[in-house]
User: What shape does this take?
Amino acid sequence: MLTYDSTNTWADGQLAEQESHSQSSNEQLTERDEKFLTLAEGLSRIMDWCFYGTKKDRTRGPRAQTAMLRFVAMAAVLRPELFGNMSYAQIGKKLHRNNRTISQYAIEFQSRFKIHSRRNRTKAARKQFLDRHYEKFHEPDGI
Assistant: This one.
């Protein structure tokens, strides 16, 4: 079973022992380890935004509904085809929310993480982008 300790490391009996052994014998991280750490840091920042997006959200604590809406908005920005290329208003309507809610969270996400929306591209441009970068997104080793 994996656990997360206060030193920001994942620990699992055998895994932790292997890590400490490998780090003591070789202090350098492998390229794969560096990729994993970068991905973990990015995921941590995204989860922080989902649960605690603004100062107001931090004072009242995490809210599952808000986190879900932010996650949906993020997914709609990054992979609009997952939602059948529906507009933000259409997605909001499916979730029984105001037609601006998903749009506001999408704008907030794009601004915070400096991401340009793939929604602004034509369908042909999105297909060309995916074809060109498919191997980057789906590496054989998983990371």
About this structure: The mean pLDDT is 76. Residues 31-137 form one domain. The helical segments are 13-25, 31-51, 55-60, 64-78, 88-94, 101-113, 123-137.
